[in-house]
């Protein structure tokens, strides 16, 4: 009787049945859609014969990991999910949405383009014209692309972010395009290109870039600049 009473309490006691789910952090994705995914995991079917259908919404039966994985799988635009049980009958779902970092396009011409975050994950197809976004291209990419894919290695994304930040903060130069290859090539808003070696220390190459732009190629003369080569270990070239 004690076991039966305990089981009944865990499964059916009204005070511990989940009654509300609070969603926070969502901006682009409707909170109601996220809540619906969570409710799917909360409503547990314990027994079903076609005639008798026994359900439980006990907070003790909710698997937080399952809720998190379902939401991440359903919404590629969500980067992280945290689920917290608020005893006795509530849940909080906190989501972190991906932020646009650049637009990924396959090949050299505009065609298939997708919005990616700073970790290189595609989270939505590009809609409309590309205006101010930095474009990242991987010329050798010929496989099928799908939303949610980790399209560019995180280390390369980190390199791109460092170069983009240094040019913008130190010299007010925007990166218009980045070509993922070896060398890693950037086309700037001033229409000149800069070349980096993927296999060398990116921080040292950025130091060389900053020194050249600060000491040897001031803003007044950059209009005639065509390229800067930084991929050589002990020297840099520019024209």
Could you characterize the architecture of this molecule?
With 239 residues, this protein is an alpha/beta fold. It has helices at 2-12, 31-42, 64-74, 154-171, 202-216, and strands at 20-24, 44-48, 53-56, 78-86, 90-97, 102-106, 113-116, 122-125, 135-138, 175-179, 184-188, 193-196, 227-229, 237-238. It folds into two domains: 2-97, Ubiquitin-like (UB roll); 102-238, 3-Layer(aba) Sandwich (Rossmann fold). It has a nine-stranded mixed β-sheet, with helices on one face. The chain has a three-stranded mixed β-sheet with strand order 1-5-4, with helices on one face. Helix 2 crosses helix 3 (64-74) and helix 4 (154-171) runs parallel beside helix 5 (202-216).
Identify the overall geometry.
elongated
- What multimeric state do the chains show? single chain
Rg on CA atoms, Å: 26 Å
- Run of helices and strands: HEHEEHEEEEEEHEEEHEE
Descriptive terms for the model:
239 residues, alpha/beta, Ubiquitin-like (UB roll), Rossmann fold, 2 domains, nine-stranded mixed sheet, three-stranded mixed sheet, 28% strand, elongated
């Amino acid at each position: 009787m004690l076991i039966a009473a305990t089981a009944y309490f865990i499964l059916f006691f009204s005070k511990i049945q989940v009654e509300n789910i609070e969603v926070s952090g969502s901006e682009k994705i409707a909170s109601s859609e996220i809540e619906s995914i969570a409710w799917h995991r909360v409503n547990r079917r314990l027994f079903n014969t076609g005639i008798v259908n026994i359900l439980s919404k006990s907070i003790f039966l909710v698997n937080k990991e399952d809720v998190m994985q379902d939401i991440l799988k359903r919404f590629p635009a969500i980067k992280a999910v945290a689920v917290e049980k608020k005893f006795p009958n509530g849940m909080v779902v906190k989501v972190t949405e991906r932020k646009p970092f650049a637009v990924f396009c396959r090949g050299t011409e505009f065609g298939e383009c997708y919005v990616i975050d700073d970790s290189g994950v595609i989270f939505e197809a590009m809609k409309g014209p590309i205006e101010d976004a930095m474009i990242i291209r991987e010329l050798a990419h010929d496989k099928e692309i799908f939303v949610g894919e980790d399209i560019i290695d995180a280390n390369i994304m980190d390199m791109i972010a460092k170069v983009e930040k240094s040019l913008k903060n130190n010299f007010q130069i925007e990166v218009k395009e980045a070509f993922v290859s070896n060398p890693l090539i950037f086309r700037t808003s001033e229409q000149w290109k800069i070349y980096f070696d993927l296999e060398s220390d990116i921080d040292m190459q950025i130091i060389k870039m900053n020194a050249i732009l600060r000491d040897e190629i001031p803003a007044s003369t950059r209009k005639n600049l065509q390229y800067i080569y930084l991929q050589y270990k002990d020297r840099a070239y520019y024209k």
